Amino acid sequence: MTEQAATERRAFEPLEHPAVWRGAELLDRPDFLHELSGPERQQVRAGRLGDAFRERLLGLRESLEHGSGCGLVRGLDISGLSEPEAGELFLAIGRQLGTPVSQAADGSLLFSVRDAGYAADDPRSRGPNTSRKLSFHSDRCDVIGFLCLRQARTGGESLIVSSMAIYNEIGRTRPDLLQVLQTPFYYKRHTVDPGNPNPFCRQPVFSFTEGFFASSLLRVLIDRAYADPATPEMTDEQREALDLVETLADDPAFHVRFMQEPGDILLLNNWVTLHRRTAFEDHPEPDRRRHLLRLWLAMPNSRPIDPLFRDNYGATEAGAVRGGMRSTP
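Request: output the structure for the sequence above.
Response:
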C-alpha cells in the first residue's frame, strides 16, 4: 500500500472556477443541456456519429473538465433497440469522449444499473444494483456516464452537487474540518474488486496537485475500513468532517435534482462533482423496470491527481488511462 503524503495540503482560498455552482443554477448553464438536432438524432440512430455530433462531443469533453463538470445529452432515439444494441451505441459515443475502463473483475466496460434482487448480504450486491437510496459519492474514473433505457414507476431521480462549491462552503464556515478532509482516509477494498491486491488504500476527500483541485468520496468504503480492526479508529474530527460534506450535499440549496428520460445520457466529472440517486419503486413487469447503463471513462484531457490515488487508479498523471477495476483471470 502506498504511504506517500498528500502533495498539496493548503490553507483555504475560495475556488473560482466554472464548476463552482449551486443548485438549480446548473440547469441554466449553457454547457449543461445538449439537445440533439434532427439530423444528429437520425445519424446516431443509424450508428453513424456524424461530424456535427462529433464536434458536440469534443465541446462536451472540454466543458466536463473546464466548465461546469456536467453534461446532459438529450434526444437520443433508443426506441426498439435491444440492450446490447443500446450498449454498443453508448460505448461508441463514450469512445469519442475518452477510454472506457473496466467496471468489474471480468473486465466489463458496461454496468447495468438496475435492481438485481440480491440479498443484502450477497457479495455481488452493490448500491447501483439495488432500489435503495444512495449517498452522495464519486466513482473510480475521471468521467461517469449514464444512459437511461427505462425509468422506474416512481423515484430514481438523479441528484448532483458541485464538490468545489462544498469545498468553498466548508472553507468559509469550518476551515478546521477542511484541513481534515485534505488528509488521507482509509478505504476498504470493495467486495466486487478481487483483482485489487490491497486490502486498504488511503485517499483524501479534497486534494490539490500541481494546482488542480480534485474531490473523491465513497463513504461506505471509508466506514467499512474504519470498522476493521486492522485500521485505526476514525477520529471525531474525521467523522464530523465527512458528515458535514454529506449534510451540505443533501441541502437543496447546493444540489440539483432531476429525472433522466429514456435516451438521456448524463456525464459527470467525478473530480468536481458528487452524485446520488433517490430510492425507487419498480414496475411489476420485468421489461418495464428501471434500467440505466453505466460507463466509466478515462479522459485524455484529465487533470493530475494526488499520488495517493495510484493504488486505486493505477496512474495519476494528467491525461493517463486510469481508474476502473483490475480484471482477474
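The chain has one domain: 23-115+129-280+293-313.
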